[in-house]
Structures are given as structure tokens and as C-alpha cells.
Design brief:
990 residues; alpha/beta; 7-stranded mixed sheet; 35 helices; 35 strands; 15% strand; globular
């Protein structure tokens, strides 16, 4: 399959889409032609054809590139979702002229979805931001890179002097490579703030918190490919057929070969549900009640895996006290599900094994998002469905590198590789960066006492998590006394992040208008360029795509892939590495920050190589096993994709380059690259040796609680010299076991240097802090997991609800349940007040359900990705879905006189919010429930904002954003918003 650029003449004007093409020199493409040319795989196209009738023309023949001329083939990955499909680009004379999917890739096997098939248009797209711009008196003006960076740097320093480092908010991107993600987090550290975040906050921050607090690491345990081994599959809040279409191929293949049971638990009859053996419609926001109802049946009937629980799980006696409250009558009262349905799903999941549980943002975007995730994990643990093939928590991430960007520390509470923010973590990364701890400490603010809260020193401020991206605009508008830092947010530095993906867009608009500085660095202007009414101190920096820079990205399954630079950055765009370097020059810390990297000549300036950045990640990423994936090993994997098994993802052991490796060296890939650990395909698998990718649960919560051991009992990885549970490896443990003698002289010297040659401090050097890798090497030599062998836990005593508790959404359609299941009390988290309880109580008191009687939820379409700026600017995709819409149940539509394809208003319960969209009348949604996709922007509460974009950069397709009507509500652990369960009112538009 080839996808070639066509040389065609401009079409005449016509409908809305045709009008947006004026001056672009491109012709519309009909749907069948696109499918035929793009090889769209399972998942297909979103079915809203009724909204787009009459807008298609016959595609005309066009002249392809010169096949006689030599073409270089370069391999990269699709820049959209997290599956990790390989793209092969054909390049002639520095121009990307043709595209193929990689048939040899074990991930996509020669297929693409609609987005992947149109990847080349990202690089050739006329709607790209072409040069730096700024607003002058409300108008966009072209400027030079030097002028832009000089002015931005000066303004940042001015704001820092007045309001402190924390007043500049750093919003990074899941579109970054791992290397750019790492650089951006390092940049924030050298600037002196933990106010650094990215898209994971709004998709899977609750997953990371929930899963990590259950068994050790906050990531997918298995892989898309491994789902082929499952005999029972539950999807809950995941619509893989549209969100992850190529992954769906593996799932459907496994369904056939395994004769697998597939249950889809969702408020909406999705395209994934169409492939299920059973669709179970649930009320949005009742996940915990459903899961506890399943576990009630499992425990009542003795279907739990008693031996697995005894050996490897802590806390079920305490958890069962909550679970057993959820008898069938209570489950039906809260969820509407009949006993026989819940029992059937529960019995199948517990007895037809291996079974896997798949979730996505339908489960995470709630005020109880972290608790939802922990409930899913509890179900897996009760049934013994973790730690082997065909099992596990298969967490489908969103953006192309949202897993890797999270791993690299684009998170308000972490340094790279989940080290946290404790002094030891900062000291570790200072050693990696070759800077004194005191230097980084000096960059942070002192925080005064406010409203009875104690003042903080610079060192204390380093340890305090920042403001989540869901609340940045509140930090601009609230009184400074309410914000737990020196001052509120005064500036936003935004790299690769939309403004329409976070609820309460009216509040976000007010926040943008209040900023002293707004900088948007992106291939496209994004909603950050159009939503506000700013007139000055607003900058757009053209960043190239990941096809125009080399680097790595990490797929959902933790596999890391190397992407070659396909072409040089087009127009006047530049890559993230160079722009971060040039901005750090203006801020005065470039020499310190970049001294550890190999610097080469870039397009406009010096820039660090991706290889040297990855090697620094390898030097420091011991806690997550990001140390064995050297550039050389990853490039070898890309050259040898055809050698990896499609199910096991493993290469033959006798291969000279990639022998025995799992594809992409999924983390943890222990030790140094020279150790040649194969990576870990399945986390926590005790059935194979650690050296072969085996593992155990991580004992990161202590060694005992209330006299009960938290270490594994009668369970250990195959080949372990310690045949029982054990704590994490430190120098002290090696000494106690007598294994320290196996360290090399060089390894011992590094450990002693870290411990400042103090015996007490040396003894505390652990597997996470040892820069030599010696402690890991010796532990694995003896068949042990460096982080120890502990129990997973179903009681997380450090979290607000140690055992997950059902809590009604802030804006619930069932006010009668709020007394029994209220949201948590108001409090303060992540530097901000959280007044969810007050908001919920007010909503009940004002009987808002009577005024806003419809539950509103949201989700993905196959044509678009994220906030949609890239994909709605792509003519191949824009043709396929041209209108923002709202799915309205047939009964509700009839009652309101709404016709399919007609215009409607959707009203929200806050800020007089409303959006004007097309109606898609369907029984996919139940009566009283509506669905809207979240990829649209460019209209705001009935106002067309096309003219607010710089000329020629407005996306082809504009539409209202669902997040204009979504509402207040935040998970107390992570700050995740409640995007999947709010209330609305729907009326026919006049």
C-alpha cells in the first residue's frame, strides 16, 4: 500500500469544507477513494455520514512522484495515538513524496487507521504555522526567531523578578519525543518550578496514581499483542475500535483464535461494543459500584483465586468490608444493572482465564478516577489475573507519547522516571546533570505563609507538587492568598498542547486574558491562539513535527521505538531541542543545562543530539529501567522489526543483533545496555527468570503494616536465589547477603562516591540511585528483582479513600443518592482549593437536575486526535468528519422536536455555557444520556473564531468544544477533571 501526494488543481467553491480550502491548491477526496488509498484497518470511520451528505466530489487522477528517481526510505512512527504504528517515508531530494505502513512491524503489520494513513500531510500541510508571530495591538505580526526569543526571555525574567519562578507555568506535550519531554522537565527544574505538566493529567494521571499505588508501576502490564492470548476481555470506558483501531486488530484476532468472551461496559453502544459478545450499558460515574457488584458475586461463590491472594496480595479482609455492601439490590439501585447481568460478567471473568481488563478515559476522567482504577486492579487481583500472558491491566493511552512523556517527568509531582520530589531524588538527578544540589535549590522560590499555611524554604518548595494543568487558569484568577506559592500564575509557556481539552473553557478563557505572557510553541496555532481576546504579549513559535526530528517515543505497552528524521523542519519551524536550548540561553542557564549533551549545528543554532539526550536518560533512569535502551539497541530493533514474534514480541535468541529481546525493550530494561536485558513484556511475571523479563510486585509501601508482612509469601520469580519475599536491594542488603563482593571495583567506587565515602550513607545507596548499575546487575545475577518481591495491595492507606468508595458525580442525575454517596469534603490539593463538595451540595439544593436533565459524556472519533488541531487541519481527515455533533437518543429527540442533522443548543449548568452543534439522533446513547466528541474547537458558545487564527493557519474544520459545557470536579489525588459525567440541557436551535 502506497500513499502518494497528488499534484492537483484547486477546486471550485462550494460547501463549508470547500470554502475552507480556498487558496490551498487541493481537491476534496471522496470517502471510498480515501479508504482505498489509505488501507484503513479495523475500527473504520466514525459513522456520522448523515451529517455530511452532499459534500463529496469524485476524486480526480493525479500525477505521483517520479518513480524513476531514487528514493530513500526512512522509518518513524505515527504521531497520533499510543499504539506505535511504524510509518515508512519515501524521500526524494529532501521532500517526503510517498508513504507506506511498515509490513514488518509487529505492531501494525502493514496497516494504518485513517489518521496514520494521512501522516504525510502533517509535514506538507499548508495550515502549519510557518514562522514566529506575535500579537501587536490585537493583530498577528510576523517576527524573527531571535526577536521572539529575546522578548519572551526578557518578559519571563521580568515576571520571575516580580512574582517568582512558580508564576511561570510550563505546559508540555504528549507529542514530544522522550528526549524533548526529558529536556522540558529539565528546563523546568533549571528554571526552578514544579509547575510542569502535559496531557497525561487529563487522560491517565489517575491511572498512574491508582496502578502505582496498587502494585508498583503506573503503566500497562501487558501489551496490545498479548491480548491475543486472553480468553475473557472486559472493556470499561474504552472504545478501541475508534481510539486505537490498529490495536483492535490484535484483539479481534485473539477473540477468534481463543473463542474469547468480550464484554463492553460503557454508557454508549460504541463501535467496540459492536464487536463484543455482550454489551452492558452502565450509568456514567458508577464504575466502582459495578466492579464491587461483580466482586460481591465472586466472593459469595468462591470464585476468587485464593492461593494467588494468599501469596501476593495484601488487604482483602479490609477491602471486603466495603465490597460486600454491594449486594445485587444496591447495585441495581445505583447502577440500574440486573443481578443476572452482573453475575454473568463476574463469573466469566473469574473462571474463564486468562482474563484482561482494558480501560481508557471513560474510567479515568472522574472525581473518583484514581479510585476507579484501583477498583479495576482489585478485580484483577481477586481473580489472579495479573502477572502472566493474556492477563493484566491493559491501559490504552491516548497520544503518541503520553506514556513516554509521563515517564520523563512531565508531571507536577515527579522528576524523570517517577523518582518523585524528595531530596534524594533531586540529589540523584543533580548527579546525573553534573550540577550541585545547591544550584538547583537556589533556582526555586521561597514561599511566604498564607492563610495559616506555613512558609516554605527553597528546599521545601522543591518537594511540593505543582499545580495541575486542569487548574492553571484558576491560579491566574484566584486571589494570590488562595494559591499555595509565592504568587499566582502570570505566564504560560505551552509546547504542543491544546486549550480545548480541559473542562470549564470559559474560565480558561478568562485565565488566558489575565496572563502577562502567553507563548504557544506548536506546529499549529491551537485553541490557545484563538480562544482569548489578548492584544499583546502573545507569541506563536513554529515547532516541527516528530517526522522532522529524530528521537524515541514509548507506546502504551512500554516499548520504545526510534524514529528517524524524515525531512528537515519545513518553513521556518524548528525542533523542540533547539528551541528549548535557545530559550535557556536567554534565561541564563544554557551552559549548565546542556553541558552534558553532544551539541551539533542545527537549522538556526546549536542543538543537542537525540542520541546524547537518550544516553543521559539511560544514565539516570534506574528506577523505571530506562537504562538498557541505548540508541544503538533501539535502532537495531527498527532495522530488524521482521524478526519479532507477533504475539510474544520476542526475537529469536540466536539473532546476532536483537537476540532474545522483546520488541522496543519495554521498560523495565534493567542494567546497562551492555547487560543486554531483553526488556519486560509482561510486568510482575514470576513464571520466567528476571533476566528473561520476569518480575514480581514492587514493595514500595513499606515492609509491614499493623504487624502484617507486605512481602510476598511462598512466591518468587523462577530461578531466584531468595525463595520468599524480600525488600528492595541496597548496598546494605548486598552486604548482608554477602553479594557485595561481586561488584566490580568500578561499580564499588561509584557507589562509595554517591555515599560520600561514609559507610552509613553507602549502605543506603539503592538500586535506584546507583549510577553504576552494579546493584541491579548483581541482584539479577542471583535471579532477584532489584526493587524487591512484595505484595500488591488493595488498601492504599495513603490515599483519601483507602478502599475505593462509590461517590456520585458532582453534577449527578441522581440527587437522591448524594446523601448516601457524596463527593469528598472540600479541601486543598496540589496548591489549590477543591470545593467539589460545595458545588455538589449547591447543585442538589438548586435542583439543577430538573433544569439540566441529560447526562453528558464525551469521547473519541477515529478521524481526529486529541484537541484536533492537527487532524482537523488535514484535508484527508477533514473530508471525513466535517461537523461537530451531539448524539441524542431517539426518544429524547422526539420529545424535543429534534431532527437528525438539525442544529441544536447544548447548555451546561455553569457560566451560562452553551454550544451550537448538529444533532445525531441515535440509540447508541440511552434515554437521558448524550455524547459529544472532544476534538473540536474554533467556535465558542455560538461565536465563529476562525478570524482569530493567523491568516492561513485556521483548521479546515471548526466546531464547538464539548469542554465549553463540561463542569467543575477534580480527583483529589491527581487533579483529574470530571469530563465523562456532567449534566446538560438540549434544545432545538431556532
Amino acid at each position: 500500500m502506497l500513499i502518494k501526494r497528488k499534484n492537483i488543481q484547486a477546486s471550485g467553491t462550494g460547501g463549508a469544507l470547500a470554502q475552507s480550502f480556498l487558496g490551498m491548491g487541493q481537491r476534496k477526496l471522496d470517502r471510498r477513494s480515501f479508504l482505498r488509498r489509505s488501507g484503513v484497518a479495523v475500527g473504520g470511520l466514525a459513522a456520522v455520514s448523515s451529517l455530511s451528505g452532499g459534500l463529496f466530489e469524485r476524486a480526480e487522477a493525479a500525477t505521483p512522484h517520479d518513480h524513476a528517481a531514487p528514493a530513500e526510505r526512512r522509518k518513524n512512527m505515527c504521531t497520533h495515538c499510543s499504539v506505535g504504528c511504524s510509518v515508512i517515508a519515501e524521500v526524494q531530494n529532501g521532500v517526503w513524496v510517498g508513504q507506506e505502513p511498515a509490513f514488518e512491524s509487529p505492531i501494525n503489520r502493514g496497516s494504518h487507521c485513517a489518521k496514520g494513513a494521512s501522516s504525510r500531510e502533517l509535514v506538507h500541510g499548508d495550515r502549519r504555522l510557518k514562522y514566529p508571530m506575535k500579537k501587536v495591538g490585537g493583530d498577528w505580526v510576523r517576527i524573527t526567531w531571535d526577536q521572539a526569543l529575546d522578548e519572551i526571555g526578557a518578559k519571563m525574567l521580568e515576571i520571575r523578578e516580580k512574582s517568582g519562578a512558580d508564576s511561570v507555568y510550563m505546559l508540555g506535550s504528549a507529542k514530544f519525543t522522550n528526549e524533548a519531554s526529558y529536556l522540558f522537565r529539565k528546563f523546568a527544574a533549571f528554571w526552578g518550578t514544579n509547575n510542569v505538566d502535559h496531557q497525561a493529567r487529563i487522560c491517565h494521571s489517575t491511572t498512574v496514581a491508582g496502578v502505582a499505588n496498587t502494585w508498583g508501576y503506573g503503566a500497562q502490564t501487558n501489551s496490545y499483542n498479548d491480548i491475543r492470548n486472553a480468553k475473557t476481555i472486559i472493556f470499561m470506558g474504552s472504545n478501541a475500535a475508534e481510539a486505537h483501531p490498529v490495536a483492535m486488530q490484535h484483539i479481534l484476532s485473539g477473540k477468534e483464535t481463543q473463542r474469547a468472551n468480550v464484554f463492553v461496559l460503557d454508557p454508549r453502544m460504541t463501535r467496540t461494543a459492536a464487536h463484543a459478545t455482550e454489551f452492558v450499558r452502565i450509568r456514567p460515574g458508577t464504575d466502582i459500584a459495578v466492579i464491587w457488584g461483580m466482586l460481591w458475586h465472586i466472593f459469595q461463590n468462591g470464585w476468587e483465586d485464593k492461593e494467588f491472594i494468599r501469596k501476593r496480595v495484601y488487604g482483602f479482609d479490609e477491602a471486603k468490608a466495603e465490597i460486600m455492601k454491594w449486594n445485587p439490590a444496591e447495585v441495581e439501585r445505583v447502577t440500574g444493572l440486573k443481578e443476572e447481568v452482573v453475575k454473568r460478567v463476574a463469573e466469566t471473568f473469574a473462571t474463564v482465564k486468562p482474563a484482561t481488563f482494558i480501560w481508557c478515559m471513560g474510567g479515568t476522567q472522574h472525581t473518583v478516577g484514581t479510585a476507579n482504577v484501583r477498583a479495576y486492579c482489585t478485580l484483577l487481583l481477586a481473580t489472579g489475573n495479573v502477572g502472566d500472558i493474556g492477563m493484566g491491566a491493559n491501559i490504552f493511552r491516548g497520544h503518541t507519547n503520553v506514556q513516554g512523556a509521563t515517564d520523563m517527568g512531565l508531571d507536577v509531582g515527579n522528576l524523570p522516571c517517577y523518582y518523585g520530589l524528595a531530596p534524594a531524588a533531586w540529589a540523584h538527578w543533580c548527579r546525573v546533570w553534573d550540577v550541585p544540589f545547591s544550584y538547583i535549590e537556589s533556582r526555586f522560590d521561597e514561599v511566604p505563609a498564607k492563610q495559616g499555611r506555613e512558609a516554605r524554604t527553597r528546599a521545601q518548595n522543591m518537594e511540593v507538587s505543582g499545580i495541575p494543568s486542569t487548574r492553571w487558569f484558576d491560579a491566574t484568577m484566584l486571589d494570590s492568598e488562595d494559591v499555595d506559592q509565592q504568587d499566582g500564575v502570570k505566564a504560560m509557556i505551552v509546547f504542543g498542547h491544546g486549550a480545548n481539552t480541559i473542562p470549564r473553557m470559559k474560565a480558561a478563557q478568562n485565565g488566558m486574558n489575565a496572563l502577562d505572557l502567553l507563548v504557544v510553541a506548536d506546529p499549529h496555532p491551537t485553541t490557545f491562539a484563538a480562544l482569548h481576546t489578548r492584544t499583546d504579549n502573545t507569541y506563536l513559535l513554529p515547532i516541527c513535527t516528530n517526522f522532522e526530528v529524530a528521537g524515541t517515543r514509548t507506546a502504551s505497552n512500554r516499548s520504545i521505538q526510534w524514529g528517524e528524521k524524515v525531512v528537515e523542519p519545513i518553513f521556518e519551524s524548528d525542533n523542540d531541542y533547539a528551541v528549548i536550548y535557545r530559550l535557556s540561553q536567554r534565561l541564563g542557564f544554557a551552559d549548565e543545562m546542556f553541558k552534558t549533551f553532544e551539541m551539533v549545528d542545527g537549522k538556526f543554532s546549536k542543538e543537542p543530539t537525540a542520541e546524547s539526550i537518550l544516553r543521559e536518560i539511560n544514565r539516570g533512569g534506574w528506577s523505571t529501567g530506562y537504562t538498557g535502551q541505548s540508541p544503538e539497541r533501539l535502532k537495531a530493533h527498527m532495522r530488524n522489526q521482521h524478526k519479532f514474534d507477533i504475539i510474544t514480541l520476542r526475537a529469536p535468541k540466536d539473532d546476532p543483533e536483537v537476540g532474545g529481546d522483546y520488541y522496543g525493550l519495554p521498560w523495565p530494561c534493567w542494567g546497562t545496555p551492555e547487560m543486554r536485558h531483553p526488556g519486560t513484556h509482561v510486568l510482575y511475571n514470576t513464571n520466567i527468570p528476571v533476566a528473561e523479563g520476569g518480575g514480581a510486585f514492587r514493595p514500595r509501601f513499606g515492609l509491614e503494616r499493623e504487624g502484617v508482612s507486605l512481602l510476598a509469601e511462598d512466591s518468587w520469580p523462577v530461578g531466584s536465589d531468595i525463595e520468599d519475599g524480600y525488600p528492595e536491594f541496597t548496598m546494605a542488603l548486598l552486604q548482608k547477603l554477602g553479594w557485595d563482593s561481586e561488584l566490580t571495583a568500578e561499580e564499588r567506587a561509584v557507589i562509595e562516591k554517591i555515599g560520600n565515602n561514609n559507610p552509613e550513607a553507602i549502605a543506603k545507596v539503592s538500586w535506584t540511585l546507583d549510577l553504576s548499575g552494579g546493584i541491579q546487575r548483581v541482584a539479577i545475577k542471583h535471579g532477584c528483582v532489584p526493587f524487591g518481591n512484595g505484595k500488591a495491595r488493595v488498601v492504599a492507606w495513603n490515599l483519601p479513600d483507602p478502599v475505593p468508595v462509590h461517590r456520585e458525580p458532582i453534577y449527578t442525575p441522581r440527587p437522591d443518592l448524594v446523601a448516601d454517596y457524596p463527593t469528598r469534603e472540600d479541601g486543598r490539593q496540589l496548591r489549590m482549593p477543591n470545593i467539589g463538595h460545595t458545588v455538589q451540595a449547591r447543585a442538589v439544593e438548586q435542583k439543577l437536575f430538573e433544569q439540566f436533565p441529560t447526562v453528558l459524556t464525551s469521547g473519541r472519533l477515529v478521524e481526529f486526535e486529541g484537541g484536533g488541531e492537527e487532524t482537523r487541519s488535514n484535508p484527508w481527515l477533514a473530508e471525513l468528519q466535517q461537523d461537530m455533533f451531539c448524539e441524542v437518543n431517539t426518544q429524547d429527540a422526539a420529545a424535543k422536536g429534534i431532527k437528525d442533522g438539525s442544529w441544536i443548543w447544548v447548555y451546561g449548568p455553569e457560566d451560562n455555557a452553551k454550544v451550537r452543534v448538529k444533532a445525531l439522533v441515535t440509540d447508541r446513547v440511552a434515554p437521558g444520556v448524550a455524547f459529544m466528541p472532544f476534538h473540536f474547537a474554533g467556535w465558542f458558545m455560538g461565536e465563529d473564531q476562525r478570524g482569530k487564527y493567523p491568516q492561513g493557519t485556521d483548521p479546515i474544520v471548526l466546531g464547538e468544544s464539548v469542554n465549553a459545557v463540561t463542569t467543575y470536579g477534580y480527583d483529589p489525588v491527581t487533579g483529574m477533571h470530571e469530563g465523562k459525567a456532567t449534566l446538560c440541557r438540549i434544545e432545538a436551535a431556532a
